[in-house]
Amino acid sequence: MAEIVRMPKLSDTMKEGVVAEWHKKVGDSVESGELLAEIETDKATMEFESFQEGVLLHIGVEKGKTAPVDGILAILGEKGEDISKILEEEKSAVPKTEAPKEEAKSEPTPVAASSREKVVEAPKPVAQKSAPVSYPTASSSDNRVVASPLAKRLAEERNINLKLVRGTGEAGRIVKRDIDNFAGGVSFNGVESFRDEPVSQMRKVIAQRLGESKFTAPHFYLTVSIDMDNAIAARESINKQIAPEKISFNDLVVKACAEGLKEHPAVNSGWHGDFIRFNSHVHIGVAVAVPDGLLVPVIRFADGKSLTQIGAEVKDLAQKAKAKKLQPEDWAGNTFTISNLGMFGIDEFTAIINPPDACILAVGGIQQIPVVKNGQVVPGNVMKVTLSCDHRVVDGAVGSAFLNTVKNYLENPVLLLGKNSIYYIIK
User: Fold this and answer.
1) Are 77 and 54 in contact (CB under 8 A)?
2) N or C, which terminus of the chain has less Cβ within 10 Å?
3) Catalytic-role residue among 23, 58, 283, 391
4) Are 175 and 255 in a shared domain?
5) Where does 335-422 have alpha helices with state H?
6) How many Å from the N-terminal Cα to the C-terminal Cα in the chain?
7) Do 344 and 353 touch, CB atoms closer than 8 A?
8) Shortest CA distance to 8 belongs to which of 53, 40, 43?
9) What domain range includes position 132?
């Protein structure tokens, strides 16, 4: 008997999914556990294995199209089986909603123009097709354009010259979305033009979650300047001992926050409506920029890990995030979040809290500026960090105490050595 295969819920925030690729076509046999399709969620592209078996009788979502969670993804059954009744029942089960009727609007009475005036209708903007313009593209050493196999195939089908396409993948690699969004270039002839781009699943969820956070949680912000001279020296010394793996300043920040959260559990908490959850464990989310938006993979039990362990884990998760290979367990369960834009040349900024966390730390770059030490103006290395706090959970004094603890750890990185030996931090 025919069975419906429904769009799975592959993450806690997923409301709809995009079929990135079908690995079967209508008429193919499908075994239980066999790869059926690739589903793009708001966070990753994941392989979907069939839990049923039979012949693929119907594909409910074409490649590149969207369907809500629990919508018909496909139908499996016996060869030649009639599925018209199933489709009709499914269609009738969807509640029909009528569009609200607009109230009749009275047209304004035109005002007669005087003999000296003319009523001129404003010109309507017209979308113009842009003239082709060459963009720099990712190329290999022999000047070949670097593009994914799928992008090359789509470009060939659509007669698109890949040399005119700007790649947004890793290292400028041309991927499917670049072909989909290619409009032939940009107009520089003084004519207004625009390009409408569908909102990706990831961007939809970012808009929803951060919008809810910003306009629901009462944010307030605390900023401190941190003397990074000792941290710079410590990092240089540690990296000499543990080559080829290196630690970054961000790894030092993660470790300092992990230790600070153990000392200030009120910051390691979250708002849950009718209760506040104070977490005993420390799971730190690290924001990673990807072409479609932002992902926050989680360093679990960060307070119990060495700097090199944190560094290796952050690098691995960042690579997975950019390749859209993160699994649900990689991004769930954060108790605190760090967003670092220092490597992008940003001096300081404020970040929106990543719910249900109570706080997020925004990290700016290290600036070489004059500072006063022992009554003398000398060159210094200063990094500004800003803590965004949910005032429903964390008050100013609590947030300030945590921030000063983090500052103390980064200005005295020897305190991060486990209070026993340097081996703890570099093991």
Assistant:
1) yes
2) N
3) 391
4) no
5) 396-411
6) 58
7) no
8) 40
9) 128-193
